[in-house]
Specification:
This protein is of the alpha+beta class. It has helices spanning about 45-60, 120-125, 135-140; strands at about 5-15, 20-25, 35, 35-40, 60-75, 80-95, 105-110. The chain has a single domain, classed as Nucleoside Triphosphate Pyrophosphohydrolase (Alpha-Beta Complex), CATH 3.90.79.10. It contains 3 helices and 7 strands. Strands 1, 2, 3, 4, 5, 6 and 7 form a 7-stranded mixed beta sheet that branches. The chain starts with 5 loop residues before the first strand and ends with a helix. The model has no long low-confidence stretch (mean pLDDT about 95).
């Protein structure tokens, strides 16, 4: 069987000029800080995937979803390869909680210019592009 890259969707949720990150556990990238997100399912839109993953992981509802950047992420130690699609959204409602405690230590809001270490590879690769989600939020108004 030929191995092929998987598609991941990572969601940048903006609230009060901060973004939500969780510390990963029990998966590749364990111990790193990552955006909420997950695998794009067959026949699922990117927006639906973003909504589903955010709710499943955090209990939050998001709005104003728009496309961001993408990264090509090769986890050589884990023999995994992802193309990660980043979307930017805004917090709409819900109470933040770690709904998958076996996968995430917890969720914390951070300033985009002061993100914690170590970062999950897709987030590291996104930052190498000088990506700024606040520019997309500001452009909307």
């Amino acid at each position: 069987m030929t191995k092929r890259p998987l598609v991941g969707v990572a969601v940048i949720i903006m609230k009060d000029r901060k973004v939500l990150l969780g510390k990963r556990k029990m998966s590749h990238g364990e111990g790193t800080w990552a955006l909420p997100g997950g695998h794009l399912e067959f026949n699922e839109t990117i927006e639906d995937c973003a909504r589903r993953e955010v709710f499943e992981e955090t209990g939050l509802i998001i709005k104003n979803i728009r496309y961001g950047a993408f990264t090509n992420d090769i986890f050589s130690g884990d023999q995994k390869h992802y193309v990660t699609l980043f979307v930017i959204s805004e917090y709409d409602s819900g109470i933040l909680e770690p709904k998958e405690p076996d996968k995430c230590h917890g969720w914390v809001w951070f300033s985009w210019c002061d993100l914690p270490e170590p970062k999950f590879l897709p987030l590291e690769n996104l930052l190498k592009q000088d990506f700024d989600p606040e520019a997309l939020i500001s452009d909307r108004d």
